[in-house]
Design brief:
Elements lengths: L2 H5 L3 H24 L2 H17 L10 H20 L20 H19 L3 H12 L4 H8 L3 H28 L1
Helix pairs in contact: 2-3, 2-4, 3-4, 5-8, 6-8, 7-8
């Protein structure tokens, strides 16, 4: 759209052209900013109105959409200042309040799982147990463990993999035994 060609046209025609070409993109941008459909529509209408009234100031060497986004963003910022910095966004359907307290049964299940894992780790052979403790309880990296134990990194990775398999096997067997017991 050329500013010089458009200056001779009536304002309504320019507005319709801007809306047809950029309306959807402007609406999507506005909605992402304000997260409210009616506010987004209002921002788009005000943006196009301002763009038509200031179209003579548009520098034709620039892209039109970024210029329109600048106008839209300025309107959005002015609205925020008008509402105050800590304005609340009121949603159409506010979420139901949830009980933030953990479920006691869930807590017991997690504790039982943690105890089972600790028992499985305690039953590992010494070599595996040392690696698992260093990796998962002391949060050491594989290179750190390799340097600490003077082992190649590949060996540390292989032993950790074998240790995880042993832990899984024990947890599966004990889980099945507890379910049957």
């Amino acid at each position: 759209m050329n500013a010089n060609r458009q200056s001779g046209r009536d304002a309504e025609g320019v507005a319709m052209q801007l809306f047809a070409r950029f309306g959807e993109r402007l609406y999507n941008t506005a909605f992402l900013m304000c997260r409210n459909a009616s506010d987004a529509e209002d921002l788009v209408m005000r943006t196009i109105e301002r763009a038509v009234s200031r179209f003579g100031q548009f520098d034709g060497s620039r892209e039109l959409f970024p210029w329109l986004c600048g106008i839209l963003t300025n309107f959005y910022r002015m609205d925020l200042r008008g509402k105050g910095r800590n304005a609340l966004d009121f949603m159409a359907d506010p979420p139901e309040p949830t009980d933030e307290r953990p479920d006691p049964a869930e807590i017991l299940a997690r504790e039982a799982d943690a105890c089972a894992v600790q028992r499985a780790v305690a039953n590992l052979p010494d070599r595996y147990r040392a690696l698992v403790v260093l990796r998962y309880f002391d949060d050491m990296t594989v290179p750190q463990i390799a340097a600490e134990l003077a082992l190649p990194e590949g060996t540390v990775k292989r032993l950790l993999h074998e240790a995880r398999q042993l832990i899984r096997r024990e947890l599966t067997e004990n889980g099945a035994a507890e379910a049957n017991g």
